Amino acid sequence: MGIINRFFLFVFALFLVLLSLGVLAVCLQIVPEHYWLNELRFALGRPETIVASAVAFFLSLHLVLLSFSHQAPRAVSQGELVMVESSAGQVGVALDAVRGLVEKLVRDVRGVRDAKVKVRSWPKGEGEPLSVSLALIIGQETNVAEVSAAASRMVSGQLEKILGFSQVPVEVLITDITNAAPDRKHRVV
Q1: Which residue, 14, 60, 149, 151, is most buried by CB atoms nearer than 10 A?
Q2: What is the CATH number of the domain that holds 111?
Q3: Is residue 38 assigned to a domain?
């Protein structure tokens, strides 16, 4: 449930609390009958009452329909493990490790200046266990189609070789084409 629907639910629940307190006050005769009847007659004659009741109706209808809706499981992109089958059983691989591997692979593709990688893991039984999104900055001297195909091929091939996942979907987005020299910072360990 999204933040907007949570807000609607909060407002609707607050309205119901106030309404139930009002009904309780009338039933226990805390508020004199002539007073609340006079106020009720006045409120029923106002156009604002019609608008408020229509808004409450549509809000409650929206919340009822929301309770019957089914959301697909969301992909996880941080802190989770991808389970890899091995002869010894299941092995957990952190998504950060996969992200780091893919970043290193993509930066080695000819023409790629910089890369941002998103790796998502899907719940078991929801198709492929991984999906990769690449946001690349490439040089002006390279062909966009060739670079994106090479990056996609390299990532898919290496993920199949290392993790055993065949046909990992790789989405490539070219975010910039630049003539700046590649940023190759190598750490000395």
Answers
A1: 151
A2: 3.30.70.1350
A3: yes
Start-to-end CA distance of the chain, whole Å, equals: 47
Say if residues 140 and 166 touch (Cβ distance below 8 Å). Answer: no
Give the C-alpha separation, 129 to 187, whole Å: 32
**Exposure on the CB side of residue 86, measured as CA atoms within 13 A:** 11
pLDDT of residue 22: 86
Consecutive H or E run containing 164: none
Q: What is the mean pLDDT of each run of 10 residues along the chain (189 residues)?
A: 80 88 87 85 88 87 79 54 66 81 88 88 67 88 88 88 81 86 57
Pair 98, 17 in one domain = no
| 57, amino acid identity | F
The verdict on residue 109 lying in a domain is yes
- Predicted pLDDT of residue 168: 82
Same domain, 59 and 141: no
Residues 86 and 64 in one domain: no
R_g over Cα of the chain: 29
pTM of the full structure? 0.53
Is 169 a domain residue?
yes
Per the CB < 8 A criterion, the answer to whether 170 and 132 are in contact is: yes
Tell me, yes or no, whether 64 and 86 share the same domain.
no
Q: How far apart are CA 128 and CA 131, in angstroms?
A: 7
Q: Tell me whether strands 89-94 and 170-178 are parallel, antiparallel or unpaired.
A: unpaired
Beta strands in 44-110 (DSSP E): 81-86, 89-94
- 124 domain residue, yes or no: yes
